Amino acid sequence: MTRLDVVMRRFAVLLLLTFGAALVLSAQESGQPEAKKEEKSEAGAIWKWANFVILAAGLGYLINKHMPPIFRARTTEIQKDISEAQAIKRDAESRAAAVDARVQALGTEMERFRAQSKIEMQQEGDRIRQETARQIARHDAQAAQEIEAAAKTAGRELKEYAAKLALELAEQRIRARVDDRTESSLVDAFVADLGRLESKN
């Protein structure tokens, strides 16, 4: 129980006592004759003022005795709460500033990351284009070599075929011109030439 509760209880008891005394006086006045009532009303008015003065003095004493420490304690508590609230506010402001700084740094970091990603994508695109150009050039060179080799092979095969056709044609013409007699004279001349060559050796 706080001191304020104690003071309030004492104040409530004092009020009840005063109210009870006023009820008793009013009850006594209502039960007496008129003449006495007038005398009593003057005495009652004095008594009421006396009660009021006693009540006011008692209240003033209680307030003067108990309220300043309560007010001081309450003021101290309020000041403590205010200082704690200010500390919490400062802490919240510093945290908010830190969050703002992080958000700004994050924005800057994101911009830097975007710029770096763009540069890396351009570099990768250039590298892919260069690699593609190299691959195309290599395939072109390889195709040119294969075409050249195929052309040489085809030329050789064509020459062989032409030579074969020429031989076959020459053979056909010779066969058409040479009969058995001419053939035997040619063979004899060939044999004679061979004999001469052997005799020289």
Q: Alpha-carbon distance between the termini?
A: 154 Å
Mean pLDDT: 79
Radius of gyration of CA atoms, rounded to a whole number? 68 Å
The helix/strand class is mainly alpha
Beta content:
under 5%
The counted number of beta strands is: 0
Can you tell me the residue ranges where pLDDT is under 50 for at least 5 consecutive residues?
A: none
Percentage of residues assigned to helices: over 70%
**Count, helices:** 3
Order of helices and strands: HHH
Largest sheet: none
Broad shape: rod-shaped
Polypeptide structure, described:
- Among the domains are: 3-98; 160-200, no CATH class.
- The protein contains three helices and no strands.
- 96% of the residues lie in helices and 0% in strands.
- The model has no long low-confidence stretch (mean pLDDT 79).
- The radius of gyration is 68 Å and the shape is rod-shaped.
- By secondary structure, it is mostly helical.
Question: Characteristics of this structure?
Answer:
mainly alpha, 96% helix, 3 helices, 201 residues
Topology at a glance:
Elements: H1 3-30, H2 34-177, H3 180-200
Helix pairs in contact: 1-2
Summarize the structure.
Among the domains are: 3-98; 160-200, no CATH class. It is 96% helix and 0% strand. It contains 3 helices and no strands.
